[in-house]
């Protein structure tokens, strides 16, 4: 801010006193209260700060100083900073105006007056507030269920921002006191989703950013529907599974894998699969197995296509009777996309 060579700080009071004595007289001097201690002025970063100094003694000389040296001596500007000017809305005012205030402007400023009787000073401490801003946040992350997860959110601001985390679910749980780090031990599938970091102080509205946490877990059959079928009609068996990544499906009749052919059609979308018999015959009745697998595991369910009026099998139960070799072969085949 200072544009001229400044005197040694130890000699500054003496030099300033001599400088003031050389200034032209006739400028009245008055401060709001020269007998008070330091006043605080709080300004938001980027705004304009006006440091007040009002004069009343026509025989006085005035100067503005900061921690670095002289800014103004009378009407003579010692600073090269174009943001700094005198504020003189009337002849009694000798205020300092600083435009586009930044954090390095913070500090003590002195309006120094040399009257006919004695020197007086009025100090103002400029406090610069900075809106909160998140400077660093974790990238989206994918982990396996049961892993430990640490999310990081760093923010800058003055005063120091308060950081809070919230899991963006219908309950919207907040994690109080976690601050920059949010640790989740043994994460579950229910804890997947978006997490919101909010940095807030009293300067302006909070800064908010999000990070997505994806939790991988092995398949679980959520629904399996057997069906009653009349010969000559169309019938379907349906199987749904929950898993991340989304599961791949296979269908088996006894130990034989079923393909879409010979009147059988398999349709699979994310999380569900169906086996449709376009024209039911006697040979289609019996037990079927739906297998769901992803890179973390494999599971299956037993379904029944039965005649009208016959005793219905256990609908949708997990089939423990399926040979282990079949499950292993299914997983290997699904992973290799055979």
Automatic annotation (TrEMBL):
Keywords: Cell adhesion, Cell membrane, Disulfide bond, Glycoprotein, GPI-anchor, Immunoglobulin domain, Lipoprotein, Membrane, Repeat, Signal, Transmembrane, Transmembrane helix
Transmembrane segments: 316-335
UniProt keyword annotation of Glycoprotein present: yes
Domain Ig-like: 24-122, 132-214, 219-304
Bilayer topology annotation: Lipid-anchor; GPI-anchor
InterPro entries: Ig-like_dom (IPR007110), Ig-like_dom_sf (IPR036179), Ig-like_fold (IPR013783), Ig_I-set (IPR013098), Ig_sub (IPR003599), Ig_sub2 (IPR003598), IgLON_domain (IPR050876)
Localization in the cell: Cell membrane
Residues spanning the signal sequence: 1-28
Any Pfam family hit: I-set
A GO cellular component annotation in the UniProt record: plasma membrane
GO terms, biological process: cell adhesion
Main location: membrane
Homology family: Belongs to the immunoglobulin superfamily. IgLON family.
Name of the protein in question: Ig-like domain-containing protein
Gene source species: Colobus angolensis palliatus (Peters' Angolan colobus)
Lineage of producing organism: Eukaryota, Metazoa, Chordata, Craniata, Vertebrata
